[in-house]
Specification:
mainly alpha, 3-stranded antiparallel sheet, 12 strands, AGE family epimerase/isomerase, AGE/CE
């Protein structure tokens, strides 16, 4: 790709900004206020100033922060405190977060006593990528094998009837986008540490499923919920578009397309999803990516439908950089500027550090806490690490 000087300057400035923000703001905040130096692992229920509001531990985030610290160690700087934090989270997972049936909890106490278990396998997915990334960072290859073994368990949980409780009653037949897309990213992250046919096979299956069932050209949308054969379900849940989720899927697909030397069909599918989802998600009145839309233009059901959450913005930042890398098309760099300028004007807390998570549609702060069971040190630092890497790759 032949970049002009303006593009080079733009990418270099953002690469430096991402790295600086990660090293001087985001990770120091969580290492200071979130890391549990007594029991191990990380707390995420932090108030605006970092003070602890609740010692309940999100099991998702033991894996997520374990992954982030190792990912930063592997791609930003080999800081021992990052590696130690990753190790703390991974060891906490192993000691406290698995039930006797091999499945993981969703919430545990500070000491690791189980509080809640859910029907999803996201805790397992994030634990697996933490183990694989920690394996690369530490050189301990046993964790790559543990990640692969856990991935095999995830597939068994998902594919064996009766292990996971159904979301709806037995007469309701539908499938969701979430598990299809998360397995792409989980498998691709583990693949960085260990090769196995199960990983590539699942990525192929997820790609096929997305293209065959979830992409609906009649609405120019990737739908969250469809029938068992991709049928459009004309209900509130069946009409739901989650633009942030779709944009995240787009960059997962672009990452895989890049792995496959920019396979044309996969690249085009990813760009189509990004273009459609940007149209649905970008708020022309106030800016930013909105939470939910209805594919028929009807009122969405979710109470937060018109809010701006932190994570869709970070996914859009990554996706637009990947799209520019794939195509060299200036429109994607313009989209990157659009989402980045809006995000950095509204989310960072200039007084206490880190970012707000929940904004009203007009960009004003809805609540100022820095974390809870669902928001913590994952989407924001992942965006900074990935975007730093992408900017530098494009410049090369």
């Amino acid at each position: 790709m032949n970049l002009n000087q303006q593009q080079k300057t733009y990418l270099a400035q953002w690469a430096n900004s991402y790295k600086q923000d990660l090293e001087e703001n985001i990770l120091p905040f969580w290492l200071k206020y979130g890391l549990d130096t007594v029991n191990g692992g990380v707390y995420t229920c932090l108030n605006r100033d970092g003070s602890l509001m609740d010692t309940t531990k999100s099991v998702w985030f033991q894996g997520r922060f374990g992954f982030i610290c190792a990912f930063a160690y592997n791609n930003i700087a080999q800081k021992e405190e990052w590696l130690a934090a990753s190790k703390s989270c991974v060891e906490f997972i192993e000691k406290h977060c698995f039930d006797t049936d091999g499945r993981m909890y969703f919430e545990v106490t500070a000491e690791g006593k189980p509080l809640r278990k859910r029907r999803y396998v996201f805790s397992e997915c994030f634990a697996a990528i933490a183990m694989s990334e920690y394996s690369i960072a530490s050189g301990d290859k046993t964790y790559a094998q543990k990640a692969l073994n856990l991935f095999k368990d995830i597939l068994r949980f998902v594919n064996t009837p009766g292990i996971l409780a159904p979301k709806y009653c037995e007469d309701v037949e539908m499938q969701g986008h979430s598990i299809t897309m998360i397995l792409i990213n989980t498998a691709s992250r583990i693949r960085e540490a260990i090769q196995a046919e199960e990983l590539d096979a699942q990525i192929d299956l997820s790609l096929e499923t997305l293209q065959k069932y979830f992409i609906h050209p009649e609405f120019e949308a990737l739908l969250e919920t469809v029938g068992p054969n991709g049928e459009f379900i004309d209900t509130i849940i069946g009409r739901t578009i989650n633009p942030g989720h779709c944009i995240e899927t787009a960059w997962f697909l672009l990452e895989e397309a890049k792995h496959r030397n920019w396979e044309p069909k996969l690249t085009q599918t990813a760009l189509t999803i990004l273009n459609w989802s940007w149209k649905w998600g970008w708020d022309e009145q106030y800016g930013g990516i909105i939470n939910f839309r209805d594919c028929r233009g009807l009122p969405p059901q979710d109470y937060s439908q018109d809010m701006k959450f932190w994570w869709p913005q970070t996914e859009a930042i990554i996706a637009t950089l990947y799209a520019f890398e794939a195509t060299g098309d200036d429109k994607y760099l313009e989209m990157h500027k659009q989402i980045s300028d809006w995000t950095y004007a509204h989310f960072p807390d200039k007084e206490y550090g880190e970012w707000y998570g929940y904004l009203h549609r007009d960009g004003t702060v809805a609540q100022p806490a820095k974390g809870n069971i669902f928001k913590g040190p994952f989407h924001i630092p992942r965006m900074m690490i990935k975007s730093f890497m992408l900017c530098n790759e494009i410049m090369k």
